[in-house]
Amino acid sequence: MTYSSPKYPSPLLIFDRNFDDIEIMAEAVKWDIDFRQIEAGKLNARALLLAGAGHMVMRVEFNRKFHQRGCPPPGMMTFGFPDQKAGPLRWNGKEAQPGALLNFNNGRMNGVNPGDFGGYTLSFDEELLHQVAESLDIDIPSSNQDLPFWNPHGAEHNHLRRILRFIERGSVNREKPIQHSVSEAFNIDLAASIVRIIGQGHVQAGRTNTPFRASVLRRALDLINDTNQPPMSVTEVCQTIGTSLSTLERAFTAEFGVSPKVYLKSRRLASVRRDVLKSEPDSLIADIANRWGFWHMGRFAADYRKQFGELPSQTLQRSSGNH
């Protein structure tokens, strides 16, 4: 049985923009996200957003490695679909195969992407997906809520990728002869392909931290993310949570591909950048840097420029233009 529907309008292109700051991109796409850049270098990012009746598709691209945290749009079922060429990525503590369909619906969005990353997110009204599943006579198991991702299995992942590329090209180029096909692909084929994949319920567990190291990592991140705590050194983190430096290093390297020292510094630099972007034009960068544990201004400026491709004074100047 195939899913049929009345004729739908073409997807609405909300925007297609380039960004050089992840905070500004997050604000534009209206997601509650906390993307932490853990690879030094100037950011080049792109986001494209398409919307229809009961669902949205977003294309994202960026050239740096991020620890991705946050929440997808509320009230919708959301999935991530990275490009195959992006390679494997960490997702909720496990390693997903290249091109896996990621599950954003279990209350956790916690991933680490490789650099030069691209992919799609797809958000649907839950009722729409269940209507499609019923029409296709496919059961969507409730246990799927607990799966971190669906690794490629059979031809459906490739089919979904072809649909998305066709929709993206057609929506950006607005070629009239293919608009009817784009409309059908966006409003019918996307949901059907998602239902077929999650109906398979196929997942393979990848490499993960041992239960002990996973517990260490969780406690360390809880401490680092506690806004009531002052910035801490790696040694202080180890002492507070009661673990050795070698255990903490193995846990962070397995999850993020960087040492806890690199992760902590990138986290503090990102916090400085966020505060600078929100500051008044006459704000002192030194005061903001000190607040996040940077005391040597020359070294701080060099680290900041290496991480973001510009000096903190340039960020403040750019921010001042928005006041």
What does this structure look like?
This protein is of the alpha+beta class and 323 residues long. The chain has two domains: 12-200, Jelly Rolls; 211-320, Homeodomain-like (Arc Repressor Mutant, subunit A). The chain is 43% helix and 20% strand. The protein has helices at 22-29, 126-135, 156-173, 179-200, 211-224, 234-241, 245-256, 260-277, 285-291, 297-308, 312-320, and strands spanning 12-19, 32-37, 45-51, 55-62, 66-71, 76-82, 89-91, 94-96, 101-103, 110-112, 117-125, 149-150. The strands form two sheets. The chain has a seven-stranded antiparallel beta sheet with strand order 1-3-4-11-6-9-12, sandwiched between helices. Strands 2-5-10-7-8 form a five-stranded antiparallel beta sheet. It is globular, with a radius of gyration of 21 Å.
Into how many domains do the coordinates divide?
2
Round the Cα radius of gyration to an integer and report it. Answer: 21 Å
Range of strand content: 15-25%
Q: Provide mean pLDDT, rounded.
A: 85
* Major beta sheet, strand line-up: 1-3-4-11-6-9-12
Give helix and strand order, one letter per element, not per position: EHEEEEEEEEEEHEHHHHHHHHH
Topology (SSEs and partners):
Layout: E1 12-19, H1 22-29, E2 32-37, E3 45-51, E4 55-62, E5 66-71, E6 76-82, E7 89-91, E8 94-96, E9 101-103, E10 110-112, E11 117-125, H2 126-135, E12 149-150, H3 156-173, H4 179-200, H5 211-224, H6 234-241, H7 245-256, H8 260-277, H9 285-291, H10 297-308, H11 312-320
Antiparallel strand pairs: 1-3, 2-5, 3-4, 4-11, 5-10, 6-9, 6-11, 7-8, 7-10, 9-12
Helix pairs in contact: 2-4, 3-4, 5-7, 8-9
